[in-house]
Write a structure and sequence with these properties.
Strand content: 15-25%
Number of strands: 3
Distance between the termini: 33 Å
Oligomer: single chain
Shape: globular
Order of helices and strands: HEHEHHE
Strand order of the largest sheet: 1-2-3
Number of helices: 4
Radius of gyration: 14 Å
Length: about 100
């Protein structure tokens, strides 16, 4: 989808692995915990995105600030996954 946006002159400079990964929404959504994020990013998203879109940054977490420390520790203590993250995203409106 990043290539499709580029074709319409919409540059994508960064993505998060999942918006609100802890939200069990009432619609189609993915719920992740920190260890599941690590597994998916280190084994799939990170390697593929770095190969196919090397200039696009990847941000961990992207949910409420009350759990940011737990997710930051999971994201940045293991080099197998931290090599793919350029930062961490979080929401300030709760926690």
């Amino acid at each position: 989808w990043i290539d499709a946006y580029k074709k319409h002159d919409v540059p994508i400079w960064g993505v998060t692995f999942q918006n609100e990964p802890e939200n069990p929404a009432g619609w189609d959504a993915c719920v992740y915990n920190a260890s599941e994020m690590v597994e998916w990013v280190s084994g799939s998203l990170g390697p593929v995105l770095r190969k196919e879109q090397p200039g696009v940054k990847i941000f961990a977490f992207d949910h409420n600030k009350d759990h940011v420390v737990e997710w930051a520790e999971a994201s940045f203590t293991d080099p197998a996954v931290s090599q793919y993250f350029d930062g961490i995203a979080f929401h300030w409106y709760t926690g």
